[in-house]
Amino acid sequence: MTQTSLESTNPALAEQRNDASFESLWQELNWRGLVHVSTDEGALEEALAGDPLVYYCGFDPTAASLHLGHLVQLLTMRRIQLAGHRPLALVGGSTGLIGDPRPSSERTLHTPEIVAGWVDSLQNQIKHYISFDGDSGATMVNNLDWTQGVSAIEFLRDIGKYFRVGTMIKKDIVAKRLNSEEGISYTEFSYQILQGFDYLQLFRQYGCTLQFGGSDQWGNLTSGTELVRRAENAHVHALGTPLITNSDGTKFGKSEGNAIWLDSELCSPYAFYQFWLNQSDADVIDRLKVFTFRTREEIAELARSVEEEPFKRAAQRALAWDVTSLVHGEEATHKVIEAAEAIFGKGEIAEIDEPTLNAVSAELPRASVPASEATAVRLLVDTGLVKSNGEARRAIKDGGAYINNAKITDGEAVLTEADWLHGKFLLIRRGKKNLALVHRS
């Protein structure tokens, strides 16, 4: 169902501003590296500098959460909105049932019930990043609203007649699939017609004149501009943002093959913060431009720190703070920072809540030990922090072994109930940086 009276769930929106040092929004978008390809550049720059326009970006519900690639689009939506233009946030209840073609193989088709649930989930996430209030308040739309009542004959007669197969098969992704061993189904081949239909419908219903998305969607974006031109004899705009890659050419936003999700249940705030904190010196300034609202002057100062004092990692800390606070809130960001400090002895570890402790310790060596047998010597050995009981006793004697940040003085005593964090965990440390987690069996 189309929704027009939503409220944002993010108080940070009120603090966001475009950079006043730029003469135009177009200049800032270019400086931030958000323009990869567009229709008539001069006309689009003029349109963005003129009277408020209506624009849209689409998000297909192919999973229960948005990820970092979507965050690029959400923040671009917000920057354009801050310039006084009105966004339409489209969640594809119909296109999500099909899925845009992937480079390698056909997508798995999910049931309408699953897709409908994902639509709701994505709509709730999108509300966090754009405003639904005021003259430039956003409108949430679902393309299932205008496709589910259209028959196949109507679709072919009224929409399909404007598309030329010769043009459609030249689209990069379609051409790759046609030349692959698996080929491409008519279902996925037709995706670009459905997306073009979205643009035509939004042009007719809302006067929408700009669509944008990732540059890998350029074929689908221009399907819409061409359909509006043929069906309505009108010229509308399309903008493709670049795909974000690391300086070494690898795909950005992947961790061991998994996307960095915006949902805290799929990617914890701690893991999310660490992802940004671990950005390389070669990438961090570009990330600040794309993913934060820091000004050109502020980012220039952080770039200086990268050059002159890289060991301080000021740029990475600023990036991690800004993006984690935006996505998960300042309170959660404070928690993960405090938790990271606490496990290395700079804070009170007992104050870390269980989900954060689990996230912080996710990559640590682990061991499972019965509470009745939990002595410091055994814990050090079972977790692999030492190789033998004798080595464990020497570490304790030398004052270099800790349980929950408390120095161990008696390696043979069984730990008490009060020692177990949340009744089930013990954090073991040898020296300053060698850590492990014990789980109560």
TrEMBL record:
PANTHER family: TYROSINE--TRNA LIGASE, MITOCHONDRIAL, TYROSYL-TRNA SYNTHETASE. PROSITE patterns: AA_TRNA_LIGASE_I, S4. A motif ('KMSKS' region) lies at residues 251-255. The keyword Cell inner membrane does not apply. InterPro entries: aa-tRNA-synth_I_CS, aa-tRNA-synth_Ic, Rossmann-like_a/b/a_fold, S4_RNA-bd_sf, SYY-like_C, Tyr-tRNA-ligase, Tyr-tRNA-ligase_bac-type, Tyr-tRNA-ligase_bac_1. Homodimer. It comes from Nesterenkonia lutea. GO terms for molecular function: tyrosine-tRNA ligase activity. Keywords: Aminoacyl-tRNA synthetase, ATP-binding, Cytoplasm, Ligase, Nucleotide-binding, Protein biosynthesis, RNA-binding. It is an enzyme of class 6 (ligase). A motif ('HIGH' region) lies at residues 61-70. Its main location: cytoplasm. NCBIfam families: tyrS (TIGR00234). ATP binds at K254. Residues 361-438 form the Tyrosine--tRNA ligase SYY-like C-terminal domain. L-tyrosine binds at Y56, Y191, Q195. This is Tyrosine--tRNA ligase. Belongs to the class-I aminoacyl-tRNA synthetase family. TyrS type 1 subfamily. It is found in: Cytoplasm. The gene is tyrS. It holds the Pfam family SYY_C-terminal. Catalyzes the attachment of tyrosine to tRNA(Tyr) in a two-step reaction: tyrosine is first activated by ATP to form Tyr-AMP and then transferred to the acceptor end of tRNA(Tyr). The keyword Membrane does not apply. HAMAP family: Tyr_tRNA_synth_type1. It catalyses: tRNA(Tyr) + L-tyrosine + ATP = L-tyrosyl-tRNA(Tyr) + AMP + diphosphate + H(+). Its EC number is 6.1.1.1.
